[in-house]
Amino acid sequence: MSDIITVTGIVATTPRHLVTSSGLAISSFRLASGQRRFDRTKQTWVDAETNWYTVSTFRQLAHNVVRSIRRGEHVLVAGRLRVRDWHNADKNGTAIEIEADSVGHDLTWCTTTYQRMTPSPGRIPDETVEPPVGTSAGEEADLATLDS
User: Fold this and answer.
1) Long-range contacts of range 49-52, CB-CB < 8 Å, 24 or more positions apart?
2) pLDDT tens across 70-80, in order?
3) CATH class given for the domain over 3-112
4) I need a surface site. Which of 32, 41, 76, 115 has the fewest CB within 10 A?
């Protein structure tokens, strides 16, 4: 049984990316999810504990994460929570991991531009920009004016 979790936070490390010998793309990064609460006695917001997660992504999501996500950016991550105890010679601890199904920028903190990926057989897809499905040339011009 796996727990589904959605977390917002700040990307704490530059995403690491690798492709295994069997062709599986993997990217991972650390995510800091800080908690804030309102302190009624002080009448102000205060920082509480920060939870730290290792976020792992696979396949096309891994390629897209390494192209899109940078250290210091606010993101949303949804996926499966994994809690694992670890031990080595003189230390032990608990690893909190999220195997992500989705990763995206948190639009509370920024704006972003959507680029659809068009896959080509046998290679990593190139980035291409496509108009929304069903838009005419006139609607494309109207959409472009919304961005300015």
Assistant:
1) 51/7, 51/9, 51/96, 52/12, 52/96
2) 999 999 999 99
3) mainly beta
4) 41
**Could you give the CA distance from residue 72 to residue 34 in angstroms, rounded to a whole number?**
13
pLDDT(35) > 80: yes
Length of the chain in residues, anyone? 148
Instruction: Write down the domain spans for the chain.
Output: 3-112, 116-148
**Contact between 56 and 82 (Cβ < 8 Å):** no
Residue at 72: amino acid letter = G
Find, among 9, 123, 20, the residue nearest to 73 by Cα.
Answer: 9
Chain-centroid distance of CA 127 in Å reads 18
The enclosing H or E element of 84 equals strand 74-87
Residue labelled with tokens 């909190």: 96
List Cα–Cα distances, 98 to 32, 34, 68, 147, in angstroms: 12, 16, 18, 34
Side chain identity at residue 31, one-letter code: L
pTM of the predicted model as reported, rounded to 2 decimal places: 0.70
Return all residues near 83 (Cβ < 8 A) that are at least 6 apart.
94, 95, 96, 97
